[in-house]
Write a structure and sequence with these properties.
Layout: E1 2-8, H1 19-36, E2 43-46, E3 49-53, H2 62-69, E4 77-85, H3 86-89, H4 99-112, E5 118-125, H5 134-148, E6 153-154, E7 161-168, E8 171-175, E9 179-180, E10 191-196, H6 202-212, E11 215-223, H7 236-248, E12 250-257, H8 259-265, H9 273-291, E13 296-298, H10 311-319, E14 325-326, H11 334-343, H12 347-350, H13 371-381, H14 385-394, E15 397-402, E16 405-407
Parallel strand pairs: 5-6, 5-7, 10-11, 10-13, 11-12, 13-14
Antiparallel strand pairs: 1-3, 1-4, 2-3, 4-8, 4-9, 7-8, 12-15, 15-16
Helix pairs in contact: 4-5, 6-7, 8-14, 9-10, 9-14
Amino acid sequence: MLNRIILHYAELTLKGCNRNTFVKKLRINVRNKIKSMGHIWDVVTIHDRMFIEVPDDYTGDIDAIAEKLADIPGVAWLSRVYWFSNKKYDFFEYKPDLSEIDTLIEKLAIETYEKDKSFAIRVKRSDKRFYQTSSQLEIQLATVILKNTEWKTVNLNTADQYFYVDISSRGISVHTNRIKAIGGLPVASTGRIMCLLSGGFDSPVAAYLMAKRGCNVDFIHFTASNIQASKIEDYKVSKIAQNLSQYCGKVRLYLVPYTHIDLALMDKNLDYDLILFRRFMARVAEKLADSLFAQCLVTGDNLGQVASQTMENVVSMTKSIDMPVLRPLLTYNKEEIVEVSRKLGLFDLSTEPYKDCCALISNSPKTKSEHNKLVHIEETFLSEYGALIEDTLAEKQVIAYNFGNRIPYV
């Protein structure tokens, strides 16, 4: 008997001819996640699942590793399993010896026993060469539990405790309750995006949701001034990017100062400074995204939440660039966004004070704008617009992370 971690992927099974491409991406991501934790372990794909083969001499906390793997987009659920290899046990002979499986089921039942609770056995027989049907083996194993432990009640529909047995061509795995993972699609399976990242709740959650849909994610953040290289890692938004890399894998955070547009708008008393600034951010981000071969921009906009996110201002920002802008939070309620932020472990960090780009905005920003009027203002008062973008990007700084670990920028 060996220790393994089993991972199942639900949505990938629907991908038809492209399924192998998605599964390959997921396998790479799982291996990289394990490597980031200091282990180089084999990841084997079988049918609709993957096995991580834990070395026999490993004495660490396998359950803790499984919990971290639940953060990988594309994994539907996972569990630590006890593995019986067919090479050793020959389960496809007539009436194979299942005594070790009986003993393990009894042991797991004793360890998980709760008074007045119910249990059920779930057998999945992927390889039909096994001599018993699923229901026959379920009855056999349930009988072992009822005879040898304090469990008294079987509930086939809504049990309190489940014991799972999966039979494949390579052997039999046994495990108890599953760990629910985040699902979705593997990162790097659908394209690359550039996310405008702030220090609040919204944009980090937007980035996470896009990673769940298979996107590689890079970030751009506008700072009040250049940050000393020695202090970048301690900067609030850098910590947010580091946290998000636990889900997104390899990410790059580009920090660019907004001082150039700030000075350009200063003393002009323009009524539309808020949306003018957001249009500038979009253009800088588009320029950087093009150089990184990103296909879309992503923002944390939530329709009607603040002045910059009225329908009119959202449209004006979108029209300022050619690149598509994705807004995964557009219809979310604020409490829904905060709930996801809590689940990601970002709530406390997002509430920490810091000086953001809103510091340069007027106290009464316009809630309605028109693209053509804004173009006229930009041509009249910001005649050196291209130079503003180039000067801003010339001062960019970058920090990169991979599954929470800082890595050299590439």
